[in-house]
Amino acid sequence: MRIILITGISGSGKSVALNALEDAGYYCVDNLPPKLLRQLVATRLEEGADSVAVAMDARSAASLATLPADIQSLRQEGLDIKVLFLTAKTESLIARFSETRRSHPLSHRTRPDQPDEELPTLTECILREREMLAPIEELAHAIDTSGLSANKLRAWIKDLVQSERTPLTLLFESFAFKYGVPLDADLVFDVRVLPNPYYDLSLRPFNGRDEPVINFLSAQAQVAELLADIRNFVEKWLPAFKNDNRSYLTIAVGCTGGQHRSVYMVEQLSKHFRTSERVLLRHRELD
C-alpha cells in the first residue's frame, strides 16, 4: 500500500495538496492524530486499499513528538510511506493568514481567563511551529509554496504522485537570488558568474528557453564549463543520494533574475538526466 503523509507549516497549502491527492484516487484523511496513524493503516490494509493520504499538522501538537518514530517504524515494516513537507517563507504565510482572516492553530487561548496581551503573535506562532515540525521535516521531501498559486501546487503534487514508483526523482528548479533561495532545495548552484543576457537589450525580453538566449549562452565557454561541472557533480553523488533512500532530490540553480541563465542551465541539465532518470522541471520565477 502506498501512503503519503502531508504535513508542514500552517498556511502552506496542505488542504490544496490533500485535495489533489483525493482527485488522484487516494483515500484521504485530514487532521488525523498521529497516534491513530497505525490504526488507520491497519484498517485500510484489511480493506485491501492500495493508496492512502493523511494530513497532520500543528492541530495535533500534543502527539506530534511520536510521529518521526512511527514513520521510521512503518518504513522498517516494508510499507511504502512518503512524507511531503509543505513550507513557505514567513512573509508569505503572514499574507495568506491576512487574506483568509483565519487564526493560526497555535494562537488560541490555553485557558479561559488568558488575556489578549499574553497570546502569541502570528510570527511567534509560525516560528514555534517550525521548531515543533523540524524533526518531521528531516524525514520528508520539502515543497516551498512561497508565491505559488493553488493551481501550480496541484500540478506539482500530481507530478510527484506520478513519479512515486521510481527509486529517486530529480527535481531541477531555476530561481532568482533576489527573491531568495528555495526552501525545498537540497543542492544549490550559483550561476551569476556567467555572462548575463539581460544586459543585451535584444535578448532581455526572452528567457532561457528561447532560441536567441540559448544561442547566446551555448556560445560561451564559461557556460559550457560550469554546466559540465554541475552535471559531473550530480552524477558523482547521485548513487549516494539513492543509497540514502531518498525519494526526491531537488537541485536548484539560481541567477539574479531567474529568467535567463538559471533557466537555460536547468533546461540543459534536465535534458541530460532525463535519458536515465525520472526528472521533474520547475522555473520558479517563470511559473
UniProtKB/TrEMBL annotation:
It comes from the Bacteria. InterPro entries: P-loop_NTPase, RapZ-like, RapZ-like_N, RapZ_C. Residues 169-286 form the RapZ C-terminal domain. ATP binds at G8, I9, S10, G11, S12, G13, K14, S15. Residues 1-162 form the RapZ-like N-terminal domain. GO terms for molecular function: ATP binding; GTP binding. The keyword Chaperone does not apply. This is RNase adapter RapZ. It comes from Noviherbaspirillum galbum. The gene is rapZ.
